[in-house]
TrEMBL record:
It comes from the Eukaryota. This is 11851_t:CDS:1. It comes from Ambispora gerdemannii. Residues 1-12 have a biased composition (Basic residues). InterPro entries: Methyltransf_25, SAM-dependent_MTases_sf. Residues 1-33 are annotated as: Disordered. Residues 13-27 have a biased composition (Basic and acidic residues). Residues 72-163 form the Methyltransferase domain.
Length: 295
């Protein structure tokens, strides 16, 4: 552990001015801000929902490494919910997380957690072969496809031989969308594709990973959760709440402006979509893709 720890490149913390410039030059920051209180709570709920929906924290080989003591990196860690939860389950492992925004705990935190502010698009400031597990979750609207692939390549570089990558994203389109919701998502798709973002990235994860020579044992776990009651049960109800918060709060003003609607018009439209999700029996597919770096 001491060895690998000393391999981490020393990073200075950004000054406020530098951080602001970095935020301004990052094209997608106007659409999504994780600092909002509701968004932090939403990401926390999503974390526990993902564990419930996938019925496990990790595949067995990853879990064994974590029990023995592993180095783990969460890229775009947001409020650090995943890291804080995992750090308490696997006290022998060291958990690193970074995010472009400081939403993670900067002072009081478990001793086996390490957070810093950094932009993944500046390259991952860690030495080659440093980590046993690198993960990214819900980064769909943070990167365009080439940027995502670039971060994946860099993740490969910093993984130890035999180390794992784990990626989790939500599939768009949803399963059994009604016509009004479909139209709203089509508008989002055009808006985001004008910024280079592909909202269908989840469906491409496996091919992106396999395009990197040296990733092996690629596995996909796809789980559909119905969002209406009673079909979706408690997971569906909670997932629907997080989707509602996402559209109503986290991205509402950015999306309304991008679609040329007033916030009030956008909210009314979203309400109609929400009703349709229930009457139509819409579901959300989550995709988890894991792969191992060849020894
Ligand atoms: C939807 S949140 C997901 C957070 C966390 N991965 C989770 O699953 O709860 C996306 C996160 O990516 C961060 N992010 C976006 N662009 C980034 C970049 N270029 N470098 C580092 N973090 C970035 C955002 O600040 C935000 O916290």
């Amino acid at each position: 552990m001491g060895n690998s720890k000393s391999k981490m490149r020393k990073e200075r913390r950004l000054s406020d001015d530098e951080a602001r410039t970095q935020e301004e030059t990052h094209s997608n920051q106007d659409l999504y801000l994780p600092q909002k209180k509701n968004e932090v709570e939403r990401l926390q709920s999503m974390h526990f929902l993902f564990i419930h929906i996938f019925e496990c924290r990790f595949l067995p080989p990853i879990e064994n490494k974590l029990k023995d003591g592993a180095f783990v990196l969460d890229i775009g860690c947001g409020p650090g919910t995943w890291i804080l939860d995992m750090a308490s389950h696997y006290p022998c492992s060291e958990f690193y997380g970074f995010d472009i925004h400081v939403v993670f705990p900067s002072q009081i935190r478990p001793p086996n957690t390490h957070f810093k502010q950094a932009n993944a698009l500046d390259g991952l400031a860690f030495d080659n072969d440093s980590f046993d597990l690198v993960r990214m979750s819900s980064m769909l609207i943070s990167f365009d496809e080439q940027q995502y692939l670039g971060v994946l390549r860099d993740s490969f570089r910093i993984l130890k031989p035999g180390g794992y990558i784990e990626l989790i994203e939500s599939e768009i389109p949803l399963v059994n969308e009604g016509p009004i919701f479909q139209k709203l998502l089509d508008s989002f798709e055009s808006l985001l594709s004008s910024k280079g973002i592909d909202i269908r990235l989840a469906q491409k994860l496996e091919s992106l990973v396999s395009s990197i020579d040296g990733f092996t044992s690629i596995q996909t776990d796809r789980r559909i959760t119905m969002l209406n009651e009673p079909e979706g049960g408690i997971s569906g109800k909670l997932l629907m709440q997080t989707i509602d918060e996402f559209f109503q709060s986290s991205v509402a003003s950015g999306f309304a402006a991008g679609l040329g609607l007033s916030l009030e018009e956008y909210m009314k439209h979203w309400q109609v979509c929400k009703d349709e999700i229930v009457t139509h029996g819409t579901g959300l597919a989550l995709r988890k893709v894991c792969a191992q770096k060849r020894f």
